[in-house]
């Protein structure tokens, strides 16, 4: 009899615990979905854009695109890269300073003071870090920064990239496209200066002395893998 009474008394308590647990899960899910505008709810935020960097970006934009602004409005393309560093720490440290290292990047030092960066940095295990809001211009692809969201992948070469990064890139691109229906193109950095590809109609450069630099990241195998995952897992096909 006591055993039955204890069981009956426990039911409301168990129901209360279940309701509280469900409430906690729902609140956590709501918090995850309620990311600030311009930020991905599944990325870890490491925002490197200080007021100084925004000012340097606006100056870069004025010089190369004719408009003094750090705002990225209605992006049309996504560009995939690798960092040329094997570790996350080395990659992040390279992007963190607001000023370009003119010795390390002498090839683009004539183009402006702001350091190179990208909106996202994907670690080798597929963890996604967001370095900048999607509504901010990053310096990552000559002639297209004003309209391109950049995704950097930790790796010192095409062979150093991982399947986890490819899956993370595909999932991230899917979410970005949902937030920005204006996006039409997905390219690898190695494709950016190919004037025969559809994306090239977006090319804009006011400084005619600022020349393209040769690129080979992230490699066609990685790009093909991401495109296949996008098509098969999310039904997304973007032009290049």
TrEMBL record:
SMART domains: Ami_2 (SM00644)
Keywords recorded for this protein, A-Z: Cell wall biogenesis/degradation, Hydrolase, Signal
Signal sequence annotation: 1-34
Enzyme Commission number, as recorded: 3.5.1.28
Catalyzed chemical reaction(s): Hydrolyzes the link between N-acetylmuramoyl residues and L-amino acid residues in certain cell-wall glycopeptides
Keyword Magnesium on entry: no
N-acetylmuramoyl-L-alanine amidase domain residues: 65-199
Keyword Signal recorded: yes
GO terms (BP aspect): cell wall organization; peptidoglycan catabolic process; peptidoglycan turnover
Gene Ontology MF terms in the entry: N-acetylmuramoyl-L-alanine amidase activity
Annotated PANTHER family: N-ACETYLMURAMOYL-L-ALANINE AMIDASE AMID
Name assigned to this protein: N-acetylmuramoyl-L-alanine amidase
Lineage: Bacteria, Pseudomonadati, Thermodesulfobacteriota, Desulfuromonadia, Geobacterales
